[in-house]
């Protein structure tokens, strides 16, 4: 599914949610998030600082909230229930791209084996689009924060996202998966066809009250994919113990629509 079609699906989904929840009087928020994405994949060495700092891309997202604490139809608060005052439903569409290289001990300059040369010759990238929802929990009162009772509102969230990915890879030594460009342990380990999967998302963050109708937000996210092909590389080796995942630190702006 291309970017335009996925964006259309998201907008239709968000509008349908808004129409359904507006019948109950709940209000809505719309925002944008941006920030660096650290991609933890089969490129490089596990728990290696150079790998973690080198394979970093950039992401952007559009977010939509259902706010249960306020009624848009009467410009008044909803019934004082714990769920209404501490939870929001967040729906979003995200896009990020990361360039990938092999880092770590096996590609150090003093490594002169054919295996090291083959790893150094490979570069890749992956483009990821995902759409999904999260349940966001605010320990402090959402009403009090909206009324200016305090400036900062921390939150945690969890949810499920559908993911569409499109990886690419190449080697300066020749075609990938060939004896010249890939060692036996990396033979048939590269895939450049797009596919889709699911993921789970966990976030910790905070909002800062900017104006009565807008907030700044910082969000620290961990997202685990149910596939090991998101980066286009999946070698059948003992050290390949986990699927691909990302850490995304983003900042955002949220505007209250009602």
SSE topology:
Layout: H1 3-22, E1 26-40, H2 49-54, E2 56-71, E3 76-77, H3 82-86, E4 87-101, H4 114-120, E5 122-137, H5 142-146, E6 152-171, E7 195-211, E8 214-225, E9 245-256
Antiparallel strand pairs: 1-2, 1-9, 2-3, 2-4, 4-5, 5-6, 6-7, 7-8, 8-9
Mean pLDDT: 85
Q: Give the CATH level 1 class.
A: Mainly Beta
Low-pLDDT parts are 15-24
Helix-residue proportion: 10-25%
Order of helices and strands: HEHEEHEHEHEEEE
The major sheet is characterized as: 8 strands, antiparallel, barrel
Compute the gyration radius: what is it? 22 Å
Category by helix and strand content: alpha+beta
User: Could you tell me how far the N terminus lies from the C terminus, measured between alpha carbons in angstroms?
Assistant: 32 Å
Structural notes for this entry:
The chain has 258 residues and is an alpha+beta fold. It has one domain: Porin (Beta Barrel), CATH 2.40.160.20. The protein contains 5 helices and 9 strands; from the N terminus they run αβαββαβαβαββββ. Strands 1-2-4-5-6-7-8-9 form an 8-stranded antiparallel barrel. A hairpin with a 2-residue loop joins β7 (195-211) and β8. The longest helix is centred in the N-terminal third of the chain and has 20 residues, at 3-22. The protein is elongated and about 70 Å long. The two termini are 32 Å apart. Residues 15-24 have low confidence and may be disordered.
